[in-house]
Amino acid sequence: MVKIHKLATERVDRLHRTLDVPQADRLSNIRQLVAAVRDGIEHAGTLLELLDVDRRHFLYYRQAAVILGVVEFNARGELLVTSLGQRLLATGEGSREERQVFAEAVGLARALRPFASFFTGEALDLATLTRRLEVLTGLSRTTAERRAHTLIKWRRYIQGPDAAAPGGLELGDPAPQIEALVARHNALVKQQTLQWLMGVEPRKFEAIVADLLRAMGYVDVEQRGGPLDGGVDVVAARIDGWGHRSRIAVQAKRYAGAVGRRYVDELLGAFRRQQFSEALLVTTSDFSPQANGAAHGEPNLKLVDGPKFVDMLAAHGVLLRVGRFGELKRHGS
C-alpha cells in the first residue's frame, strides 16, 4: 500500500477535467505501476528504477493511472488498486485482453471523453489532434503537441499489432511478461533489502559496505566510522595493473530520507584534506537535488543510492546474488 500525503498530490485533485490530458506515453508502464501498488512497492528509488523514469515523469504516470481509474486514493491518502486495475492485472502483458481493458478504461475516463471518437477509430493526424487539444484545453501549442503524441501512442498500443494473415500460426510471446515479472520481483527485493539495512546497527551497515569493497577487489579495507570519523566511515585501496596504489574514502549513510548537500561537502572536505584518490557516498535512500548539484563536476566522487547499492551487492555476491533469469536472490539460496 503506497502512502502519499495530499500535500504531495495537489495536481491529482483536479485530474478528471478535460485540461488534464495524460502525458505518460507508455501504457505498459501504467500497468507496471498498478502492479507495484498491488505488490506494496513504495520505496521511491525502486519505483523510479522500475518504471525507468525520473520523479517528474513518475507523477505523470501516477496521474494517468488515476485518470484511467486503475488506481485511486483512499481517505488516508494511500494509493490503492481499483477493481478495474485488478482486472487489468489479471490479463497477460501485451495481450488482446489487456488492450481491451485499457480500451474500456479510456472509454470510462471522464477526462478523455472529448477524444472518444479518436480512440474508436476517427482518423486524426498529429496536427489536427494538437489543434483540438489547444481549443479544448487552452494549452500552448508545444504542450498540446506533446499530449497529442501521448494519445496517439495510447491508441496505437490499444489497437495492437497488425493481425496475422488468415490461417497463419499465432504464437504468444512470453518475454514481456517474464521481463515485467523479474523487474517487479527485483524492485520488491530491493525494497525489502533496503528496509532490512535500515534496521541494522550503523557499524553493521559500514561492515557491509566494507565487505562490498573487498568483493570489488579493494585491499586494506578499514572501518573508521564513529563520532570522530571526520566524514569517512570506510577507507580502502586499489592497486591497478601497473602497481599504482590509490586510496578511496567512503561515507555510508543509513537514511530513510534524502541525503543532503552537507554530507557531500563533508566527504569532499575529507577527500581533499587527506588526499584520497576517490570518494564514495553510499546511502539506503537517495540524494537531494542540492547534493547531486554539489557532486556534479567532481569526477572522483560517486554517489550511490539505495537501489544502485543493492545492485552492487548482488553483482558482487554480498548478501544477494543474481539468478539465471536476472532475478535477485538471497546469497546461498
UniProtKB/TrEMBL annotation:
Protein's name in the database: Restriction endonuclease
Pfam families hit by this protein: Mrr_cat (PF04471)
UniProt keyword terms in alphabetical order: Endonuclease, Hydrolase, Nuclease
Keyword hit for Nuclease: yes
GO terms, molecular function: endonuclease activity
Source species, domain of life: Bacteria
PANTHER family linked: MRR RESTRICTION SYSTEM PROTEIN, TYPE IV METHYL-DIRECTED RESTRICTION ENZYME ECOKMRR
Organism per entry: Nannocystis pusilla
Every Restriction endonuclease type IV Mrr domain range: 200-313
Gene3D superfamilies, A to Z: 3.40.1350.10
UniProt keyword annotation of Nuclease present: yes
Signal peptide: none
InterPro entries assigned: Restrct_endonuc-II-like (IPR011335), Restrct_endonuc_IV_Mrr (IPR007560), tRNA_endonuc-like_dom_sf (IPR011856), Type_IV_Methyl-Rstrct_Enzyme (IPR052906)
